[in-house]
Amino acid sequence: GTEWHWTLQLKTEPERVIGEIGLKSNDEDHRGFWLGIPWRGQGLMGEAAAWANNFWFDTLGFRLLRVSKAVGNRASRRISEKQGMRLVGMHEKDYVCGHLPSEIWEITAEEWRAWKRANCGEASHS
After folding, report:
1. Is the separation of the CB atoms in 42 and 51 below 8 Å?
2. Rg for the chain (alpha carbons), in Å?
3. What are phi and psi of 112, to 5 degrees?
4. Distances (CA, A) of 104 to 51, 77, 122
């Protein structure tokens, strides 16, 4: 009841896990993901992140989504920027590759719904 995790799989190869996305209801970092290198740059994680955002706000009922990302992770930053999140702070965080400077991004439920109306249309359920 405090964490939710999903694997990403292609419709053409449902037995192959190509990534993961997860949500957790702690106080500082709510969403994390990874995607295998061959599948990056195709919009797959953006689609999964939008779905997870909807689940966070519409199914679980949270009012704020906050995510951390390593400063050098430009692809992850672009997903946050494209989905209407805003940079609200900096901190240090431990990652698999070491202790790195990190950005903190967030969006409220109201901001997310407004972004969806403006970018996806009223009926969209990404």
Report:
1. no
2. 14
3. -65, -45
4. 20, 10, 28
Task: Write out pLDDT tens, residues 1-47.
Answer: 899 999 999 999 999 999 999 999 987 899 999 999 999 999 999 99
Closest CA to 68 of 98, 93, 96, 36: 93
Give the pLDDT confidence of 36-87 residue by residue, as tens digits. Answer: 999 999 999 999 999 999 999 999 999 999 999 999 999 999 999 999 999 9
Q: What's the rounded Cα separation, in Å, for the pair 25 and 115?
A: 22
- List C-alpha distances in Å: 32 to 11, 117, 124: 22, 24, 23
The C-alpha angle with vertex 46 and arms to 72 and 32, in degrees rounded to 5, equals 60
Long-range CB contacts for residues 111-119, cutoff 8 Å, separation at least 24: 111/84, 112/53, 112/57, 112/65, 112/83, 112/84, 113/57, 114/84, 115/83, 115/84, 119/84
Q: Does residue 21 contact residue 48 with C-beta atoms inside 8 Å?
A: yes
